[in-house]
Description:
Structural class: mainly alpha
Distance between the termini: 47 Å
GO molecular function, one term: DNA-binding transcription factor activity
Radius of gyration: 15 Å
Domain HTH araC/xylS-type: 1-79
Shape: elongated
Low-confidence stretches: none
CATH superfamily of the domain at 27-82: Homeodomain-like
Pfam families: HTH_18 (PF12833)
Number of strands: 0
Keywords: DNA-binding, Transcription, Transcription regulation
InterPro entries: Homeodomain-like_sf, HTH_AraC, HTH_AraC-typ_CS, Tscrpt_reg_AraC-type_HTH
Largest sheet: none
Number of helices: 5
Mean pLDDT: 92
Order of helices and strands: HHHHH
CATH architecture of the domain at 27-82: Orthogonal Bundle
Helix content: over 70%
CATH topology of the domain at 27-82: Arc Repressor Mutant, subunit A
Amino acid sequence: SALGTNKNLLTDAVRAVTGNSPMEYMRMLKLDEARKMLDHHPELTIEAIAFSCGFNAPSTFYRLFRKQYGISPAEYRKQANKL
């Protein structure tokens, strides 16, 4: 209501533009940011990246990252470093 619309209208608008619910879209954005950080910040731990990207628990981050990309964050980082 702070945006002058109701929750259903906002949800429908986000879904129309992104193909996902607002929660799913935000999760995808956070995972994409984490993936970029894994690429560009080898000095950061995976746990630090998880917290930096808004995940409350590293275990949640690991699970969602694997679901989204098919590999763990550590495996992703290892592959990215080989390129």
